[in-house]
Write a structure and sequence with these properties.
Blueprint (H helix, E strand, L loop, with lengths): L2 E6 L21 E3 L1 E2 L5 E3 L3 E3 L11 E8 L5 E7 L2 E6 L4 E7 L10 E7 L2 E7 L6 E3 L7 E2 L13 E5 L2 E5 L7 E4 L24 E4 L7 E6 L4 E5 L3 E5 L7 E4 L12 E4 L2 E6 L2 E5 L4 E3 L7 H4 L3 E10 L2 E7 L7 E8 L4 E16 L2 E6 L4 E4 L13 E3 L10 E14 L2 E7 L4 E5 L3 E14 L2 E7 L5 E3 L3 E9 L3
Antiparallel strand pairs: 1-39, 2-32, 3-4, 4-38, 5-31, 6-7, 7-8, 8-9, 10-11, 11-12, 12-13, 14-15, 15-16, 16-17, 18-19, 19-20, 20-21, 22-23, 23-24, 24-25, 26-27, 27-28, 28-29, 29-30, 30-31, 32-37, 33-36, 33-38, 33-39, 34-35, 34-37
Length: 477
């Protein structure tokens, strides 16, 4: 036989668990901290810290919320296990807004922007205390609702749907869905009681489903309210109590953690150990490449997951290593290209998106902007891309790598060809978009695998793709 050339180009995402030889060569069997935007392969951007770390023990940090105000100001709030903080840009420090009576669990916070009258207000539910409301500025946090209005209970799922406030997560009534009065004519979303003038402006509640399984999440779409329970999904249809209908969604799915759900347009995506699913307005479907990370997803911990949508990319933070305090794996999903990429090298408590920027609350208590800068804090970005196994014309032949040719800019890069019998690598810089760089290699086996990785966090951009040259010979028996 003779020399063979394999070309890698128009790089896509990560695809795991497929049968040997079935993974297209522009997909990676494994990769981390790389970008494949536009089909090019490059090192991903890092994050840029915005504020000093939040005071206190970092392991007690729970949630991040970024509140864009009508005035153009952006308020940044961080929920710690025992307190709620807001960053004061004038003083350059974190302001202690509120102390909780009991320590908060990781999954008990929900933030919702509303208008009460004409006042911009932020609602904060935690499931252990009554809802809080904050108008921002110098105003202190105040309790929401009243006992007379039946709205002073402890809930932790909050959504606006057709102008009303909906709530769930009452530990005394776990399957109960509440809704407020229709605002106007003296009525307010702070009143959940009946209104004698009309059922259709009244507040109220209903038990969802025929069992006592708790409601585990609420998500409002443009024309329906999704209600997750332990093992079912329901949707509320209608725009007033007189025509409300709650019907089950007939679809088999693994119920998600509500913090691993994210709205993209009018579709709800959610990541589970069975893959990435979305609700399309009628039923639940798995995205075409939603099962590409099944081997990885089957072993990660979703218990303190975080998620956000920024542009056309969805981000999900989960815990991969048991010894990590916070989420140590960030999964990116490109909606338009239907592919996954992975980020490692930092811990994520929570994510928030605002004005096209992705905010990150790190395990060290910093609020930072992701996809900016050339490092993860002070740590270099360790990036690599690894091809599927290459079997050539036949798995019965022996392959010997000769060289890899990469076209692009940056580096240095370490290029390795993994073989079953021998491994070889070469280090060098890229020569430019019009000058291919050669990396001499010596490795062999029945199968080969190309691995490209940066050195000491170096940046690179493979705009012209990569080629692998190898010699393929029949085995001598």
């Amino acid at each position: 036989m003779a020399l063979q050339t394999v070309r890698f180009g128009s790089f896509a995402g990560v695809k795991q668990g497929a049968c040997g030889g079935s993974v297209p060569l522009n997909w990676a069997e494994d990769a981390q901290n790389v970008s494949t935007a536009g089909g090019k392969l490059g090192r991903a951007k890092g994050y840029r810290p915005l504020y000093p770390p939040v005071t206190g023990a970092a392991r007690k940090l729970r949630r991040l919320f970024v509140w864009p105000r009508a005035t153009g100001r952006v308020d940044c709030l961080v929920a710690r296990q025992d307190s709620l903080f807001r960053y004061d840009p004038q003083e350059g420090r974190w302001e202690d807004l509120y102390h909780y009576t009991d320590d908060m669990d990781a999954d008990t916070f929900d933030f919702l922007k509303v208008k009460i009258g004409s006042t911009e207000t932020l609602l904060i539910g935690n499931g252990l205390e009554p809802i809080l409301k904050w108008e921002g500025g110098a105003a202190s946090i105040a309790p929401f609702g009243s006992a007379q209005g039946l709205s002073n209970g402890a809930v932790n799922f909050l959504e606006l749907y057709f102008g009303r406030l909906f709530a769930a997560g009452d530990r005394s009534h776990p399957a109960r869905l509440y809704w407020s009065q229709a605002p106007g004519d003296g009525r307010s979303i702070e009143d959940w009681s009946a209104d004698e003038s009309s059922e259709n402006v009244s507040g109220g509640h209903v038990e969802v489903g025929t069992d006592s399984d708790p409601i585990t999440g609420l998500f409002a779409l443009s024309n329906q309210l999704l209600i997750f329970k332990k093992d079912k999904l329901y949707r509320l249809l209608g725009d007033r109590p007189g025509n409300y209908r709650i019907v089950p969604v007939e679809a088999a799915l693994t119920q998600p953690i509500h913090t691993a759900c994210v709205l993209y347009g009018d579709r709800l995506f959610f990541l589970t150990d069975k893959g990435l699913y979305f609700y399309d307005g009628q039923t639940v479907r798995r995205s075409p490449h939603g099962a590409d990370l099944l081997p990885l997803l089957s072993r990660v911990d979703f218990s303190a997951a975080a998620s956000a949508a920024c542009g056309d990319t969805l981000y999900f933070a989960v815990k991969e290593r048991a010894d990590s305090v916070h989420n140590d794996l960030l999964i990116e999903y490109d909606v338009l290209r239907d592919c996954f990429l992975l980020r490692r090298g930092f811990e994520t408590v929570d994510l928030a998106s605002c004005y096209g920027k992705l905010y990150l609350l790190t395990g060290s208590g910093q609020v930072a902007l992701l996809n900016e800068g050339d490092s993860y804090g002070d740590a270099p970005i360790e990036a690599y891309w690894e091809s599927p196994w290459l079997e050539g014309a036949s798995a019965l032949t022996v392959k010997k790598a000769v060289e890899a040719v990469l076209t692009g800019t940056g580096g240095p890069l370490r290029v390795t060809v993994l073989g079953e019998s021998r491994e070889g690598c070469s280090v060098g810089k890229l020569s430019g978009e019009m000058e291919p760089a050669e990396f001499l290699l010596r490795s062999g086996g029945r199968r080969l695998k190309l691995r490209i990785e940066n050195v000491d966090g170096s940046d690179f951009d493979l705009s012209g793709g990569a080629e692998l040259l190898f010699d393929e010979q029949r085995r001598v028996l």
